[in-house]
From TrEMBL:
It is found in: Cell membrane. Residues 730-757 are annotated as: Disordered. Its main location: membrane. Residues 491-724 form the ABC transporter domain. The lineage of its organism: Bacteria, Pseudomonadati, Pseudomonadota, Betaproteobacteria, Burkholderiales. It comes from the Bacteria. InterPro entries: AAA+_ATPase, ABC1_TM_dom, ABC1_TM_sf, ABC_transporter-like_ATP-bd, ABC_transporter-like_CS, P-loop_NTPase, Type_1_exporter. This is ABC transporter ATP-binding protein. It comes from Variovorax rhizosphaerae.
């Protein structure tokens, strides 16, 4: 019996490789092209469902397969922001995961449907899928897993330590040498006691030469310990600071690569806390406590070897408290681990209040909500205090308990040692050296127990940092990007579709924009205008169809290279803290002063800039405080002009200003759109009369396309929008006239009070 291929069996190398793996009686039920790898980079993989097994070809060319005999097996299909995920699980583990662009969603749904049809029962499939969702929330692309951080997460910092391995090896050797130097003095107490002091008490003369020799050895060991300790502390502190700086930089750089939807689900204060305080905490752990921990381990190990070499029986007695201390550390560590992560989350709430209130202080004061915001901060701070108090109860009991056990251990050694001296098994010098070594031993043991707290804090911080670093952008970079030198600006959208989760926002959209053409996007709120602009900017990737610029799919361009050719002017312009010149030159930092001034002139911003105290070197407050809305907008237009983009996006660029300011901005926009492919979204339809064509959108679909006059004659969707806006304008004008009349009456009444007319 020959196998039968489905209609959508892939062609090419992958299809041929699949056919070669099928048995004679095996039927292919469905296939899915897997065009993304584990890091969401484009690849060439394949998933095939047959009547007996599931076969997968990974993007690297290797094959995997699973027999479909287990009733507990389940396929879980999820999608998020343009990326589909198909998980294959059984009752105990995740067997395989494949990611693909949603252009292949139909094939994925078909494969899932056929898989479920051959399952034992729909109930079993549903239960397994629910368990799978609990095991892996990240597959749904919604939230980070709230699992308690493991101490082993600190080992992942090793990749940041790699560049400094030579310095770290040197630091380890210095630590070893300095620890050995500090262990010399207790050993010298044996001959000092047995050969000098005790014989002197028995009437013998003190050998001055021996005393000088032993004291010199003590001095040399102290100096060596100091020099080696200083060298290792300084060296490892330098290394840890650099590791911390690299960690901050890497986290911030990775954060900048993440898509807009990631930031939509995060609070600014939380992200600031992660990059700031969490990396500082890790840095302190690496520069101070990790070094102390290493020293403690070496000290305990080397002390134990010396104790066993002096007297094995007494050394065994010394180790009596160790099992109890180890048990306490194990119990407390679990509580600290979860507690510190909770503290981190609570502290991020405190910083969130600050991040919300300080930038919005004008709104807070305008609505007299200072007390409300102070109460919010007080409540967040109070909760932070409660969580810390709860954790401190555990820690305050643990630390004295360890100290008590070490004191008891010391008493046991004293008692056993005195008994050994009385029996003549050891000398007083040996007991004295033992006590000196044990003092160091228990001190280091106590120090190690205290480091548990710092370690768990660092582990909690590292987990929150790696939650950012492990997040993969759903706007993937192409494996072999097409180079972008200069583009003409033709934009072609064919069969375009986009969904937020399961909600379709753009549906089957076809549109071609010619180079240099100005397109006006109009429609009711929620019709998909801003989403379409975001797709053209590639802030998100389409789920169906493609967007092509000059005939090339924009997903084949490197993201940064492509966006250099796209200028964006938003409704609410964002200015950074800095000078006017720096804000204009943001997209082209190496621009000359002449280029900056030319861009400002074209944006009709030059005159008002010269009226400022320091002209182009005048400082702009955070988010453009100190400038009017129209002035900020003209600076943002100058910023777009300076990079000379071939594609220009105007998103409600004049909706937030008055009529006079709008005229000034419109003059600047007229200069900006010349010779560029322009897509403009405008609230006032009258501002789009200069557009070559108007594209009317409704519920994610294009319902009308054409010039203003032609669409008005058609009396369709655009005509209705225009008429509605005219009626609104007439109502506003009438209301303004009524307000003017009332104001005039009140003014007359104030000028001629009753009885004086």
């Amino acid at each position: 019996m020959q196998h039968h291929d489905p209609v959508d069996t892939p062609e090419g190398e992958a299809g041929a490789a699949l056919k070669s793996r099928l048995t004679a009686a095996e039927n292919v039920l469905a296939t899915l092209t897997v065009d993304l790898d584990g890091e969401l980079r484009f690849g060439n993989g394949l998933l095939a469902l047959t009547d007996s097994r599931l076969l997968a070809r990974d993007p690297d060319g290797s094959w995997r397969e699973w027999a479909l005999a287990n009733a507990g097996q389940v396929l879980l299909l999820t999608d998020h922001a343009g990326v589909g995920t198909l998980d294959f699980l059984d009752d105990s583990a995740l067997l395989g995961r494949w990611r693909y662009t949603l252009a292949h969603q139909v094939a994925a749904l078909r494969l899932l449907k056929l898989f479920e049809q051959r399952a034992a029962s729909a109930a079993q499939v549903s239960a397994a899928a629910a368990e799978a969702a609990e095991r892996d929330d990240i597959a749904a692309g919604e939230t980070e897993a709230q699992k308690p951080p493991s101490t082993w997460v600190l080992l992942r910092l090793g990749r940041f330590a790699k560049p400094y391995r030579k310095q770290l090896i040197t630091g380890f050797l210095l630590t070893l040498a300095s620890t050995a130097a500090t262990l010399v003095p207790p050993y010298l107490t044996i001959p000092l006691m047995d050969d000098i002091l005790i014989p002197f008490q028995n009437g013998q003369q003190i050998a001055v030469g021996k005393v000088v020799m032993f004291l010199s050895a003590l001095l040399l060991s102290a100096l060596a310990g100091w020099a080696l300790g200083w060298a290792r502390t300084y060296l490892l502190a330098l290394v840890s600071e650099r590791i911390g700086a690299d960690l901050r930089t890497t986290t911030y750089e990775h954060l900048l690569t993440l898509p807009l939807d990631y930031f939509g689900g995060k609070r600014t204060g939380d992200l600031m806390a992660r990059i700031g305080s969490e990396t500082d905490r890790i840095n302190v752990f690496l520069s101070l406590h990790a070094l102390d921990f290493l020293t403690d381990v070496l000290m305990i190990a080397m002390t134990a070897v010396i104790l066993v070499s002096i007297n094995p029986l007494l050394a065994v007695v010394t180790l009596v408290p160790l099992p109890f201390i180890a048990w306490m550390i194990h119990v407390v560590r679990d509580r600290l681990r979860t507690g510190f992560e909770k503290i981190d989350r609570v502290w991020s709430e405190v910083t969130n209040v600050l991040a919300d209130t300080i930038p919005g202080i004008r709104v807070v004061k305008a609505f007299a909500q200072e007390k409300r915001e102070a109460d919010r901060f007080r409540e967040a701070n109070k909760y932070n205090l409660q969580v810390n108090d709860k954790l401190n109860k555990t820690w305050s009991l643990f630390t004295p308990s360890v100290s008590l056990l070490t004191e008891i251990g010391l008493l046991v050694v004293w008692g056993f040692g005195i008994w050994q001296v009385a029996r003549g098994s050891i000398t007083v010098g040996v007991l004295t050296a033992f006590i000196a070594y044990i003092g160091r031993f228990y001190t280091r043991l106590d120090s190690m127990s205290r480091i548990v707290s710092v370690t768990q804090k660092a582990a909690a911080g590292a987990k929150r940092i790696f939650d950012i670093l492990d997040h993969v952008s759903n706007v993937p970079e192409p494996a072999n990007p097409v180079k972008v030198d200069r583009i003409k600006g033709q934009i072609e959208m064919k069969g375009l579709g986009f969904r937020y989760g399961s909600r379709a926002v753009i549906r089957d959209l076809d549109l071609v924009i010619e180079p240099g053409e100005m397109i006006g996007l109009v429609g009711h709120s929620g019709s998909g205008k801003s989403t379409l602009v975001n797709l053209i900017c590639r802030f998100y990737d389409v789920t169906d169809g493609a967007i092509k610029v000059d005939g090339t799919d924009i997903r084949r361009f490197a993201v940064a290279d492509y966006r250099r050719h796209v200028g964006l002017v938003l409704q609410e312009p964002f200015l950074f803290f800095g000078t006017i010149a720096q804000n204009i030159a943001y997209g082209k930092p190496d621009a000359t002063r002449e280029e900056i001034v030319a861009a400002a002139r074209a944006a009709h911003a030059h005159d008002f800039i010269l009226r400022l105290a320091h002209g182009y070197d005048s400082l702009v407050g955070e988010r453009g405080q100190g400038l009017s809305g129209g002035e900020r907008q003209r600076i943002s237009i100058a910023r777009a002009l300076l990079i000379d983009p071939r594609i220009l996006i105007l998103d409600e660029a004049t909706s937030a200003v008055d009529t006079e300011t709008e005229k000034e901005i419109q003059k600047a926009l007229d200069n900006l759109v010349k010779g560029r492919t322009t897509i403009a979204i405008a609230h006032r339809l009258s501002t789009l009369r200069k557009a070559d064509r108007l594209v009317v959108m409704d519920r994610g679909e294009v319902v009308e396309v054409g010039p203003h006059d032609a669409l008005m004659e058609k009396q369709g969707a655009y005509w209705r929008l225009y008429q509605a806006q005219l009626r609104q304008a007439d109502d506003e004008e009438e209301a303004q006239e009524q307000r003017s009349e009332v104001s005039a009456v009140l003014h007359t009444h104030a000028a001629h009070p009753a009885g004086q007319a």
